[in-house]
Structure formats: C-alpha cells, structure tokens
Write a structure and sequence with these properties.
Distance between the termini: 26 Å
Structural class: alpha+beta
Number of helices: 4
Shape: globular
Oligomer: single chain
Number of strands: 13
Strand content: 25-35%
Helix content: 10-25%
Radius of gyration: 18 Å
C-alpha cells in the first residue's frame, strides 16, 4: 500500500500505483472491520507477547553480519495464532478492495534462515538507521557477540546455536489500535506518523 499526497494506491514493487484511492476510503474500510475483529477475538484481549528474539537473514548467513534484530511471539501460542488470523484478515480485505497488490501471505516471523513471507514482528534494531550513517555499504552488528555477552545472561541463557529464536521475556502488550501509517515518515519519537486508526478498546 502506498500513501502519497492524500491518496492511496495499489502498486507492485517498483511500479507506480495503478489505481488511486483516497485515505478516507482506506480508513472507512478499516473501520468496517471492527465486527469481524471482535468475532475473531471471541471476547479475548488482543495481546502480543514479546517472548522470542532473533535476527533476519544476515549477510552471507553469518550472525556476525546481522542488520535487523526483532522480537515477536512464540509461533505456537494462541496469542500468535490470533495475531496471524486478524492480520491476515485485514491484509486480505485490503488486497481484495484493491489497496494492496502484494500477494504474499502474512506469517508470524519464523526462524533466522527460514524463508520470509511478510513477517509479523517488532523491529528492535535496523542498521539502515545507524547514526552517523556510514559511507558505502550498511555496517552490520554481531548478533553472536550480543547474545554471548555476559551482560545478556540475566535475560536469557547462551544459545546452543544462532539459527533458532531465543526465548526471552519482554512483556505482553495489549493491541489497542490498528493504524494506517505513512511509510517513511518520522514522528517525534521516530515512529511512523499515523493517518488514523481503528480503536479496539
């Protein structure tokens, strides 16, 4: 989905939107999904536990050359399945309405060297935002050094390998709103700027 000068359009990677739609149309569609979301929740709170940590595929498959560190829920938890069901329903509805052309399914983020669809995860670190920005290629960080550091021991044991997610406990977070945000924007705290959202309270 792209947002440009108040309009939304479905587009393929690297191509211009073929069908322009307004932000208000997108918000109206999002608001219409509240009954379906409530049905999927079945009276449960919409929560996301951040109890798994890993990196996205590093340069050359080497954990000493990582670029993105993420947190997410355990894939076998009911909270993760609920997140995936709701995320897929919202994604599918926007695809069918012509707002999104990407046909890859949503999946809760899997393991380090696994194939990615569109991973549902919380990015903690991304070297593309490193400051000051280095000249030339992005400067990676060592995931191995991070997880093997003595400073990490109070939070999780040293892993046996670097392929699988590490079990951590960064709390369980209530999802209070589903937002449409302007990609590439920066708010006061570096977050994407919200263009509106559906309250789940």
């Amino acid at each position: 989905m792209t947002l440009d000068d108040g309009t939304l359009g479905s587009s393929s990677s690297g191509s211009a939107p073929t069908t322009l739609k307004t932000l208000q149309e997108a918000l109206t569609l999002l608001f219409s999904l509240k009954p379906r979301i409530e049905e999927l929740l079945s009276g449960s709170r919409f929560c996301v536990p951040l109890n798994r940590m890993n990196i996205m595929k590093p340069d050359g498959g080497d954990p000493d050359n990582a670029h993105v560190l993420w947190l997410g829920p355990s894939q076998d938890s009911e909270d993760a399945r609920r997140l995936e069901r709701i995320g897929e329903m919202v994604n599918r509805t926007f695809r069918e309405a012509g707002f999104i052309s990407d046909r890859r399914p949503l999946k809760v983020q899997s393991y380090l060297f696994g194939a990615f669809a569109i991973g549902l995860h919380c990015t903690v670190l991304n070297t593309i935002y490193r400051k000051p920005r280095p000249r030339g290629p992005r400067q990676p960080f060592s995931y191995r050094a991070l997880v093997m550091s003595p400073a990490a021991r109070p939070f999780f044991p040293a892993p046996a390998n670097f392929r699988d997610p590490i079990e951590v406990d960064f709390g369980t977070w209530n999802v209070e709103e589903i937002q449409l945000c302007r990609m590439g924007s920066y708010g006061r705290d570096g977050e994407y700027v919200s263009c509106g959202g559906l309250s789940l309270l």
